[in-house]
C-alpha cells in the first residue's frame, strides 16, 4: 500500500504541474469528480454498516489501515480526533516498548507524555515514531509535542543496595572471568540492535541520562547488565548495585535472576528441516528457552508486533537435546537457543535472553510494510556480524554447557 500511495502522490504532483493551463484544469477537475464519487459511495457503505452493525462495526471497519485512510480522506472516519490520537499513541508505544499517553489536545496540538524504561529507543526515535503515528491517524493535528515523564517509582531503596554492595555482597562471574557486572563486550551488539540514534556505549563509563535502572531508577552506563523478571517474564535493565544484589538467585525471593554473559556460536548443530517443521514456527528465526518451575520449553519468534510465544513439543525438544548435548547446560529463563534460518542461513546460538529481546526490538522498531524494508535487513545483518565477532565457537555435540565452563576454568 505504501508503494501505491507514493505512486499516486507522484502522479498527482505531475498532474497539477502540467504546463498547459487547460489540460491541468481538466485533470484536476477529473480528480475532484472521482474523489467526490468515491466519497459518496463510501458514505453510503458506512451508512449501511452502521444500520446493520452499529458504530462498533463501523469502528472495526475503520481499523483497517487502508479503509481507515480512505475514510479520513473523505472526512467519514467514525472515531473522533481524540480517540484516533489515543489509539495511535498506544500503537506507537507498544511498538517502541515505552509507556505513552495523550496528555492534552487543544488548538491543533497534541501533547504526548512518554516514559521510557531501561535501554529503550532514543528520544529522537520516540519523537519521530509518535509524530508519524499521530499525523497518520489525525491529519488535522498541526503539531505534536513530546513531554518526557520522570522515572517511575523505585522498586528497591537505593541506599539498601549501596550498603549491600559496600559490604562485599556476591559478585557475578562473567564467562571471560571478569568479576565486573557492567561494561561487557556485548554492549556493542545491544547498541547496534537499538533504533538509529539510540545512545551507545560510553567509553568513559559515565551514566547515560536516557537510561535508568528499572529497579531503583539510578542512571545507568550504556553498557550495563540485565535481570530477568520471572514474574513479568521480561528483562529489566540493572545498575551495578542491583546486579550485585541479584547475582544470588535466592535474593528477592527468586523473582529476579541475573542474565549471564556467555555467547556461543554452536558449531555442528543438528537440526534438520523435518525437526524444524515440527516446531511449527511460521518464520525462519526463533529462540527457545526453558521455563523455570514447570519444565516447559517456550518457542518464541519475533514479529513486527513483538514476541510471539508458544509451547514447544517436549518430544521435539528432547530430540534436540539428545542430538546436541550442549543444550543440557542451557540456564532456565535467562538463556536461549537462537536459530537463524533467514535467507538460507543455518546458524545456531546459545545467547543471553536480553540479546534475543534486543533482536526482537530491532525488528519491531524497524519493520516497514510487508517485507520489512531494506534498512531493517541491513541492521539485522549488522546484528549477526557483531555477534559473530564476540561469540565463542562451541561444539554443539561436545560437552554440555556446565562441563564446557569447567574446561574453560570458569566457575560460578
Description:
It is a single chain. The protein is α+β, with helices and mostly antiparallel strands and 412 residues long. Helix content is 42%, strand content 19%. The protein is built from 13 helices and 15 strands. It has helices at 2-16, 21-62, 65-73, 81-96, 123-137, 158-166, 187-193, 240-245, 273-278, 314-323, 353-366, 374-390, 401-407; strands at residues 99-106, 109-115, 143-148, 208-212, 219-220, 225-229, 234-238, 256-258, 264-267, 285-290, 297-303, 306-311, 335-340, 347-352, 392-395. The strands form 4 sheets. Strands 12-11-10-13-14-9-15 form a 7-stranded mixed sheet, covered by helices on one side. The chain has a 3-stranded mixed sheet with strand order 1-2-3, covered by helices on one side. Strands 7-6-8 form a 3-stranded antiparallel sheet. The longest helix has 42 residues, at 21-62. The model is unreliable at 160-204 (pLDDT under 50).
Keywords:
412 residues, alpha+beta, seven-stranded mixed β-sheet
Short description:
The protein is of the alpha+beta class.
